[in-house]
Structures are given as C-alpha cells and as structure tokens.
Amino acid sequence: MDQLEQDFLHGLKTVLGLPNPFVPLHEPEFMGNEWELVKDCLDSTFVSSVGKYVDHFEVMLAEYTGAKYVVAVVNGTAALHIALLLAGVRPGDEVLIPALSFVATANAVAHCGAIPHFIDSEFKTLGIDPHALSDYLKHCSLSSSEGLTNRFTGRRIAAVVPMHTYGHPVDMVSLLDVADRYDLTVVEDAAESLDSRYQGQHTGTFGLLGTLSFNGNKVITTGGGGAILTNDAELARQAKHWTTTAKQPHRWEFFHDAVAWNYRLPNLNAALGCAQMEQLPDFLRRKRLLAQQYEKVFKDIDGIDFVVEPPNSQSNYWLNTLRLNQPSFEMRDRLLTAANEVGYQCRPTWTLLHKLPMYADCPRAPLPIAEQLEASLINVPSSAKVALV
Amino acid sequence: MDQLEQDFLHGLKTVLGLPNPFVPLHEPEFMGNEWELVKDCLDSTFVSSVGKYVDHFEVMLAEYTGAKYVVAVVNGTAALHIALLLAGVRPGDEVLIPALSFVATANAVAHCGAIPHFIDSEFKTLGIDPHALSDYLKHCSLSSSEGLTNRFTGRRIAAVVPMHTYGHPVDMVSLLDVADRYDLTVVEDAAESLDSRYQGQHTGTFGLLGTLSFNGNKVITTGGGGAILTNDAELARQAKHWTTTAKQPHRWEFFHDAVAWNYRLPNLNAALGCAQMEQLPDFLRRKRLLAQQYEKVFKDIDGIDFVVEPPNSQSNYWLNTLRLNQPSFEMRDRLLTAANEVGYQCRPTWTLLHKLPMYADCPRAPLPIAEQLEASLINVPSSAKVALV
Ligand SMILES: Cc1ncc(COP(=O)(O)O)c(C=O)c1O
Ligand SMILES: Cc1ncc(COP(=O)(O)O)c(C=O)c1O
C-alpha cells in the first residue's frame, strides 16, 4: 500500500473513527418529530393528494430559502422537468448543463424532448464555469431576434442550468452576467444545495426557477420528493397546475385544461418533510463541523485536498469531497477500493454525462476541467451523525 | 324537488345512514399494521429508494394478481407511461383509449409523445366496446407489414388501452380477439381495478403489460403509488431499469445506459402499501356488501339503476355507480347538487376526454354510448367503512 493510500485511510479514521462495521456515505436521521407528524398524517387519513402537510412544507421551504413561492413535487427530477417546461424549453431545443452532474439533470432535459449541451466546470466551485461558458458561446452561438441558436446545429439554445455540486454554489454573479448578455433563461438545479447560499442568497432563488430534491441521500428527506422555487406568482400557479393534472377547480366536474402530470408530493411524504425541516439547522451545524474536521485533517496530507466552500459562498457541505492533486483514475480507484473494503463508503464523482451512451452525441464545449475533476474527486462519508460533536 | 331527486336522496340515506355531517366518496382506512410498518421503515432509516418494503410490496402484488412480475412505481400515471414505452409506443404513434376515462390515461399517451385516439364504451362494462372497436378499425385502419396505420392520419396505431372503469372489467375475450386480428399490443390501465377479475383472471394480467394505482382514493393506498404488471421477464427487468435512472449495478460507478426516469416508489410508501395489502380482502368484502345494499335499494327506484358487475366478471366495486335511465346533464346535476348539499359526496363521471381542449383535435371513433354515459353516470359514496356490516 503506498503512502497516499495509507494517509487517506488514516485521515478517514481520524475524522470518522473506526467503521463499526460500516460508515455510509450519507444517512438520514429521524430523531425529531418525524414519527409524530407521520402518525398524525396517517390518523387524519389524508395521506395522498390533499392535506395540510403539503401546504405546510411549502411554507417552511419558502421561509427557509427566501423563495416567494414553492411547489412541492414527487422528486427532484420531476421538479426540474416542470421547471424547464415553464422556462419555455421545447422539443428540439438545446439546454446548457454541466457535463459534471448527476444523470437526472440531463434526463430532465430529455424529458422535455430537448437536447443537453454540455459545459465545463470550474475547479473552485465544481459547477459551471461562467467564463468558459462565455468564451464558448462567443464562437458557438448566434443571437437573433428569435433568441440564441447553436451556430453548428441550428437549434435554439433555450436555457442554462447551473447545478450546485455537492452543495457548493456556482459563481452566480458571473453566471447571471453571461446569461444576461446572451439572453439565456436560468433554471437552477439546486437538488443538492438546500441551505447553500451565495452572497447570502439561497441557491435556487437566482434563476427564473430553481429546484430541490429530498431523496433519501439528501440533507433532508421525504422518502422521495422535490420542490420548484420561483419568485413569479404566475409560474408558481402554473407549476402547481401542471403537476396536479391541470384540473380546474369545480365542485364535482373533471375538467382539465392542459396535458399535465401527476407529480404532486403525497401528504404522507410532506409530513416527514415538515419534521425534517425542523431538524435542518441542527443537521447543518453538525455537517459543517464534520467538514471542518475533514478540512483540518486533510490539510496535512500530501497529494489530496479537501474541497472547501467557494469564496462568497456558504456550502451545506452535502457530500464532503476530496480532490487528488494529480488526476488519476487508477489512484482514485485504489483509494476507493481501500476505503470501501475497510467499511468507509466512498464514491467517485459521476461519469461525465457525455460519456453515457444516450448522451454521447449531444453537443459539448471543451471539458478540460470536468475531465480532470472526474479523475480526481472522491466523496467521503458525510452524515450529520458522524460528526464528533 | 321532483320524485327522482327525492327517491335518490332517500336511497342514499337507506344505504348510508344520515350524513354526520359528510360522507366522502372514498376514504382510506388504516386500521391494520399501517403504523407499525411505517414506523419500522422510519426506524430502519431506509425510507427512500432502497429498502425491503418495495420488494415485499411487489411480491404481495404478484401473489395477489397472479402477474409473474410486478414493478412498484411512484404512481399510476408513471406506471402507464412506462408500460406504453415498453409496449413500443413512440412519438407520433396513435394509441387507442376509451373517451370515457380519467385524464391520466390520455396524459400517459401524451407523455410518450403519442396521440390518444378515442374509442367508444360499452353500456354494460363502461369500458371499451370491442365490437364497436372492431367495426371502427375495419374502416379507419390499414394493415401492412409495418403494422396498423390510421388510414386518415397515416400514423401508426401502436396499442390499445382497455381501462376497467370503476372496477368493472372490460369484455377481455372479445377485446383480445380484436387486438389479435389487428395485431395491436394491449396495455391495460387497471388503475381502478385491483382485485377485479374477468373469468377468474385478474385485470391487468391479460395484456402485454398492465398498470395499477394506489392513489389515496383507490381501494388501497400508498399515499401515491402505482405498479406495472407483466408476465415477461425481460419487460419487467426493463421496467425496473427505466424507472430507476437506468443505472448499471456497480460498487461505486455512476454509469447509466438509457434516458430514464426517477419513478421508483419510496420505501416509506411501500411500507404503507404492505399493510394495506394485508387489509385488502376485508376492504373488498365490505365494499361488496355495500354494493349489494345499493343494488337492492335502487332496484325499487324508477329512473335510475345501479351498475352491477358485468357477466363473467368480478368487480372490486371501487366506485359504486348509478346510471340515469334517461341521460340528462340537467337531471344529473340536480341529483349531484341535492346529494352534495345534504353531505353525500357524489360525482359525475369524467368529462369525455375529446372534450378537453388539449385532446379536442385527436382522432376519435363515433362515441354514442360514451356520450350517453357521460350524461347519466353518478358515483356515490363507496368507502368500505360505510358498509353497514
Ligand atoms: C444534481 C441533481 N439533480 C437532480 C437530482 C434528482 O433528484 P431526485 O433523485 O429527487 O429525482 C439529483 C438527486 O438525485 C441531483 O443530485
Ligand atoms: C383510469 C385511471 N388511470 C390512471 C390513473 C392514474 O393513477 P395515479 O393517480 O396514481 O397517477 C387513475 C387514477 O388516478 C385512473 O383512475
């Protein structure tokens, strides 16, 4: 075993203690009012499409994020699908997304009948690099009265989707500047960044719309769940309408006025979400302590760095991330093997989206940084409960 | 108030007792192990995409329905969407569905990029009329080596979707015969017909694929949920793969091999489903008693009939249904007004799908029976708990 492997395992042990027998990557915690609210929901019999917990959860999220309107939905993929449709993404359009993201970002674009167009990431934020994007658009796009088109494919470029990777905010001031100059609608994939802030403003509230996920591996969970954030009353109304079969209110008639989805969050899952929201500040306090422990311990280890929150930002440190100084799939996989064998669940970042067969033919910018990050990022155990507080 | 209104209210009172203050159309019941299993699920922390309850729920459904394979998903709309894709429905195809159905049947077709093509219903079953379908296909379709096409639109007709209305099974022998002669793939929308059988065989198991819903208003509920049924191992494997982001199993790599969905049922909702499945036989016993009470009481009332299960079929009597002898929107709405004002929640059937703006331009067969049914059907309170047992 070489030095880096030894140091890496030693670092994990220092932060996490000995695995006994297994430290998961991210585990939820239900130590608050989860049982009570879920039981109350069952007792009410309103477990499904109607019920007070959905409304309550939406209000809690609005208050927490500062978004004016929140629409709870069945998961983060559904949230992004509808947000993109509301942003005007239409079949045959292209949507700019980072090559370094979870596959759901690209899938939501495909669910609109649109085509992902992959953009490079920034070393510091792990998210879309606004400067690289700007340079790229200069040569690959054409602006006209009909909007932005891809000079090579002739397709409309309808939107850009910054994703706040592992909780670290994208450089939003620069991104909004580029979007503004190119007349691009911004939809933020904030699935991973509940409580992450850029210059004090919550991620997901910069774009026309933003989306959250409450999957089991996120900072809070509803089993499965997601939300659409917006400051636009009319978009919020439509988001609710399109995610609830577009039924017009009536005493008894079933009149629906648009092709629509059953994307509503069940009240049962919302009840869990309300209890989780109450815990969120405590989860985040402990997650931040854990991140500080990683930062401190790995500062002294050569060859690998802990990824800290970008300047002007506050990260939720959803998944703590280490970065090899020398990108190497071989070394990355050796460290992953060593850690997972001992019982620390560690993961590489995602396979870059343009390397997946269904997205291999999609347009893309040069991706030098994303390629480096793919060969150097390692996620390490990040549950609030493993922080030694 | 005229005689029919008086008789109708009196009939409801005889069956249901006095509303105190309100008898809902259909209410779930959680008097079994619901809380225990949900609590166990919370305690395990596996509330989301991984967990034993999803597997368990799928096995229970397979045993109950006789389907070889069951894939639990997030709701009935998602189930039908994926079932149609698996049946080979592609953008620009037409799919034959009843005009008399909940909007989700048409939406699932639209979600595939396909076009609903509306078919008439049968008076007895309230579902697709196989004989009318056969006559209609004779003049409107063309068979060739590429399959069936619509002679007027030139589009491929990819599948037919019988829906078992309010639990009453479609005449499946005749329908399968038509499908066979025209080489049409059958996908059953069995959202409303868990436990309904045709000649002893469970609805949803006749077609290549079938789908269920566990929405809050159905015979059992998971908050939100659905399932795909099939006897084909490869289709079942694909259904699971496509509804769970098409991720290839690997110790740590994120490699996905198809555009796919996050349509998995959370383990929390599956835990509720397992407990509900335990109760199902008792729910159905009581629902059948309630239906018998309606049948008996409304036998003596002139001008309105109770819809009984079709020949050779066993209905789950999901929603008990009365039918005016003389179709009349005016009389229907008078009865609805009277009943709802007193506190019996009653509903008309759905607005026929071709009357909704987004489906108004879709192709359709003559719909004389569906038109009559629309002006004559009334759903009356149907919860198992209101049966006077
Ligand atoms: C970046 C990103 N986008 C979208 C999603 C989709 O969210 P969900 O799993 O709730 O559908 C996730 C999380 O899984 C994600 O990490
Ligand atoms: C005929 C029919 N199809 C599809 C669905 C869709 O099911 P879900 O509401 O679970 O999406 C329903 C129930 O709502 C239904 O009644």
Automatic annotation (TrEMBL), chains A, B:
UniProt cross-references to CDD domains, sorted A to Z: AHBA_syn (cd00616)
InterPro entries registered for this protein in UniProt: DegT/StrS_aminotransferase, LegC-like, PyrdxlP-dep_Trfase, PyrdxlP-dep_Trfase_major, PyrdxlP-dep_Trfase_small
Keyword Oxidoreductase annotated: no
Pfam families to which the protein is assigned, alphabetical: DegT_DnrJ_EryC1
GO molecular function: transaminase activity
Organism superkingdom: Bacteria
Keywords: Aminotransferase, Pyridoxal phosphate, Transferase
GTP-binding is among the record's keywords: no
PANTHER family the record matches: BLR5990 PROTEIN, TRANSAMINASE
Homology family: Belongs to the DegT/DnrJ/EryC1 family.
Name of the protein this chain belongs to: LegC family aminotransferase
Organism field: Spirulina subsalsa FACHB-351
